[in-house]
Structure formats: C-alpha cells, structure tokens
Amino acid sequence: MEVMNCQRCKRLFNYVTGEKICPNCKKEIEDEFQMVKKYIKEHPGNDINKVSEECEVSVKQIKKWVREERLSFSDDSLVGLTCERCGTMIHSGRFCASCAKNMENAMNGLYETVREKPKKSGGKMRFLE
C-alpha cells in the first residue's frame, strides 16, 4: 500500500491499485456519471456540450465514459467521437465496427500461427541450433 495525493482533489489517501483518485472522488465521479446517464436518457437529442453544461461535468469526462463504453449516444444524436484507427464517426467505444472486426481477425491470425504443433522427433532428444 502506498500513500499518495489524489489527482483530483490533492488529498492524501492510501493507494492500492487502479486510478490514482481517492475514494471520495471516485464516489463523486460515479454520482456525476449517474446524473449524466439520466440526463441523456431524458434528453437524447442534446449534444455533448449541452450535456456538459446542464450536468456541470467536463466534456473530457463525458468523452472518457463514452470511450470506456459506459455511455452511448443514439445513432441520430449529434454527439460523436472518431474511430482511433480510421477517423470514422462513432457513438461509443474507441473503434468503429469495421476496424474492430479487422483487428479481431488479425489477432486470430496471430493466435493460429502461435498454435502450430511442434514437430515430432520420434522419441529422440532434439537440440536447438
């Protein structure tokens, strides 16, 4: 366990793992999240700046929740982020569906090459050169 200052309020707290934010600030952030989530549900057509202004939460924090896929805006919403790979407009997460699928296929291909079966040596000892 380590004692450090909270990145948000600068108070000392016992840091174990995760974000370097004290328990009080974590609770405040979670309360803000619930408030933003409720506001978006009640006002689905508002843009991110309006949501930020009405809920008094930074645009940066709202975008973080959207990237983490904790928040998602409807397809007809004016709110959007760009795919980190190709720049296409998305409403939740970090990557568009196409890039996510391409990366998944690439990872599966890597997995298959690693899983190649070792050559049988006929019960004899082998030496690497």
Describe this structure in words.
The termini are far apart. The chain has helices at residues 23-42, 48-55, 59-67, 97-114; strands at 2-5, 12-15, 81-82, 89-90. Helix content is 43%, strand content 9%. The strands form 2 sheets. A two-stranded antiparallel sheet has the order 1-2. With 129 residues, it is mainly alpha-helical. A hairpin with a 6-residue loop joins strand 3 (81-82) and strand 4.
Helix/strand-derived category reads mainly alpha
- Count of helices? 4
User: In angstroms, what is the radius of gyration?
Assistant: 23 Å
Helix content: 40-55%
Q: How many domain units?
A: 1
What gross morphology would you assign? flat
- First-to-last CA distance: 46 Å
Structural features:
single chain, 129 residues, mainly alpha, two-stranded antiparallel ribbon, two-stranded antiparallel sheet, 4 helices
Brief overview, please?
The protein has 129 residues and is mainly alpha-helical.
Topology readout:
Layout: E1 2-5, E2 12-15, H1 23-42, H2 48-55, H3 59-67, E3 81-82, E4 89-90, H4 97-114
Antiparallel strand pairs: 1-2, 3-4
